[in-house]
Specification:
Helix content is 36%, strand content 0%. It contains 4 helices and no strands.
């Protein structure tokens, strides 16, 4: 397993766009890929046209099952 973090404090630097494209490319290459959106606006889910009733907050604070919060958007992704 590898962890890749895309970070920058400044907004509008292409973080979400980079993650969407990198994640999609890895998934198309056969890698099982999990993207975690820690942005309160949830733009990663919006980019894939999906969302979840529960998110990272519910996992960390309420103890929700991470598998129940995950949303499959494409094969391997």
């Amino acid at each position: 397993m590898r962890v890749i973090a895309v970070t920058n404090q400044k907004g509008g630097t292409g973080k979400t766009t980079t993650v969407v494209n990198l994640g999609f490319a890895l998934a198309q290459g056969g890698a099982r890929t999990l993207l975690v959106d820690i942005d309160a606006q949830g733009n990663l889910g919006v980019s894939f046209g999906t969302g979840s009733e529960q998110g990272l907050y519910h996992i960390l604070v309420d103890g929700a099952d991470p598998n129940a919060c995950a949303v499959s958007v494409r094969p391997n992704l």
